[in-house]
Amino acid sequence: MEERQTAQAGEEGIGERMMIWVNSFPEAPAGLQEGAVLYGQLAKDAPGMALIPVPGGKAVRDILGGLEAEYRFRIEYRVRPGDSRERLEADRLLDRLAVWAAGQRPPLDGGLEAREIRVLKRAALTRVHPGGEEDHSVLLGLRYRTKESI
User: Rounded distance, CA 46 to CA 68, Å?
Assistant: First the structure.
């Protein structure tokens, strides 16, 4: 088997499918509209959520050309907490999202099949902005394969 590092090996369309899937999380934060999880980056200086691809997944091709790979991504949640309780609730929400995600197999296109979602790093505060907004994030990995490699 040939192994290689990849940012998005064979992943055309996975980002969009994953964004649609994450938007089905039943505990959308108060103040966010349904379907408000963005792709790629958060809106500047405003509360919100985004799915952001993370380089570093591995892809393995078998002798028949089937692909097994990992799509790494983080869910970032920008809040303006009023106190420590609200700051902790942001992490708790992301951890609940991670637990929900780990029990799912999101639908994929292009002959790809989701195998599992793993929590790679629990939710934590990742950045504090000058205006008082904070970014919290959780790191997840989607293991998937081509249907031919089943």
Answer: 37
Q: What is the mean pLDDT of residues 68-83?
A: 92
Residue 140: pLDDT over 70 = yes
For the segment 83-97, the average pLDDT, to the nearest whole number, is 94
d(C-alpha 51, C-alpha 35), whole Å: 12
What pLDDT, in 10s, does the model give residues 104-122? 899 998 888 999 999 999 9
Q: Residue 92 CA to chain centroid, in angstroms?
A: 16
CATH 3.30.2000.30 fits 2-149, yes or no: yes
Which residues, at least 6 apart from 103, have a Cβ–Cβ distance to it below 8 Å? none
Nearest to 138, CA basis, from 76, 72, 54, 56? 76
Tokens of 99: 């637990």
CB of 94 closer than 8 Å to CB of 79 = no
Alpha-helical segments (H) within the chain = 14-22, 84-102
Q: Are strands 38-39 and 48-54 parallel, antiparallel or unpaired?
A: parallel
Instruction: For residues 36 and 20, give the distance between their C-alpha atoms in angstroms, rounded to a whole number.
Output: 10
Q: What number is the average pLDDT over the span 51-69?
A: 84
